Amino acid sequence: MRRRWSGWLLLVAVGALLHGSAPAAAGPPAPSGRVLVISVPGLRWADLDHPALATLRELADRSAVANLATRVTGPMARAGEAYLTLGAGTRAVAPPQLAGQVYGATEPYGAGTAAEEHARQQGAVVGDEEVVVASWPLLVQANDAAEFAATLGVLGEALERAGVDRGVVGNAEGEDPLDPTSPSRQREVGLVLADRTGRVPCGEVSGSLLERDATAPFGVRLDQERVLAAAGACRTDRSVVVVEASDLRRAAAYAMRAAPEMAAAAWTSAFTTTDALVAGLLDDVDPERDSVLLVAPTTRPERGLGVVALRGPQVDQGLLSSGNTRQDGYLLLADLTPTIADLAGAPIDEAAIEGRLAEVDDDGRTPAERRRHLVDQEAAATFRDARLTSVVYAYSAAVGLVALGLAARVAAGRRGADQWLVGAALALAALPTWTYLAGLVPFHDHGPAAYWAFLLLGAALSAAGARLVGGSVTAALVGLYGALVLVVATSVVVLGSRLQMSTVFGDSPIVAGRFSGINNVTFALFLGAGVVLAASVVQGIRPPGGPRLMLLLLAGLLVVDVAPMWGADVGGALAGLPALAVLAVGLGRWRLRWRTVLLVAAATVGLVVLLGLLDLTRASADRSHLGRLFERIGSEGGDGLTSVVDRKLSANLRSLTGSEWRFVLAPLALAAGLLAWRGRATVRAVVQRYPVVRDALPGAVALALLGYAANDSGLAVPAALLTFLTPALVVLACRVQEVSR
Prior knowledge:
56% of the residues lie in helices and 9% in strands.
């Protein structure tokens, strides 16, 4: 026992030593000049093929580029929360009635001016050229009470400490008689560079930036000369200036209520004025020393992915990624915060924020090919999201019908196996594997019919092939569940999670929960398949070989799931190790003692700590969710951990009424009730013929319960696990009935 504990302590010590001896991260580069951030709300990569966007297209073609996941509190970020997130580096909430309350210092406010109101709130005097956020204290309070507890003004504070000047320019207001509830102030761009008091030293956000135009959405558009003059007034040798192409926001709002041809005309007009504005802004940029960041922080009126293009003197062309996404061509909104700070030479503590510095990979594509690739990425993501509900409902309904078919057959006293029932169950066991393999085919180009044909035909052929090659239904089960393990493991270990990206049971870039590794539903399917395989090994191989091979199999699955460079599944470490331990004890028919329970609990904690320490030895950009959690705990102490726990608990509770998987429980419960009422003899026969079913049950239950508790997908984990295991149970029951005929 002492030797075992010594080994664990040695591993932890080595991890800590490696962490302590890891080379320090390089400091920020010397300031390269000025940083111009051009916000183009609602712009998509597909839009750059429009003839009116020649300047934007040329800028993108000379830049490092990516799709931007804009999700904050929902799949479509509102302008206020998007801009506030850019300034905080962490997802931030911004109630619409508060977000746009940004004023020039001399603008009227209440009984006096905005500067006087700011002095009353913050006790500070501001100059006439400054911009203030009148609602700043309320925004701070809202975020203190929110799930992510974002610290506002992180970017503005970092720039101020580094002596970098900053300014904001933009106004998206437009009087809309059809929506009298819309905020009267839409100047959210001012939130990006505000400091901890809600102040920006330079800028223009007032209505003076607008001019009347009867043909423009809501009858107004930006006065380009005034916008350019305001931006120029804020530029210095070391400055960050954010300019919003606000005509795009007005076009997006107008398009939702206009006839199609008028909406198209509004977009064309906004594209034309925006392209001219960008051309004017670039005239004052020196490519040899200045950096330009083009960003679409919102995607309204449709959900999708935004645009990011970064051009700078030391930025190569290619695809952008970050430590958050670990996938070329994807960035998070929060990743732009440290990126802007880095471009300006302003140190920022990444441990205190969600965002991670953007990196460039030369993918070898031409600029046009790169844009086409990004368009395809977004199309695949939107296609995936559109299919998710229908696939989950159809799969759940089919499994429920098969389970009810078995229960009805048993309740009616019918003997013998129903080959159609067996075939359907085998196909349902195969179908999840084909949802991952669908990631190899661009079904967004081929349509839903081709997608469904691929899934159904693939599942049917797999079921038939497994039955033919295996020679028995039990061997077929091993092949089908083993195929899912092989596909998922190959994806995360060899292919960089290629088969999880934009697949229905994998990851959605639009939802932006994960971009690599093993997500929550995949965790349920992957370890659920492991339950079947482990039970099959014990059933088919006599001791001691069977139990030993079972332990080796479960250990391998756990390593793939939790290793930071592969599955990077924190919930898998917390739920997988104890659940698989319970499974192993049951299948091995070993006695479960309190000492064993305590050892498993200690091992779980030790595994999480060890993985966290090892993750910290890797470069910041390569760290997984667990390493980030350790960073946050190191930066914020216990508050960093409790905020994560609170967020997961809230998400779990919401899943009880919001998850697509919740509807599978009713038919499966009804089938179980029928079997308990009229099919107990069949249940006993299954257990007698396959005792591993009884032995594996405690482990499967532990996996479901702990998976629910440890993962923020909540109900989706036990529901997906139960759904995936049901076909195997149906096949075994049919096999028993066939033998007893």
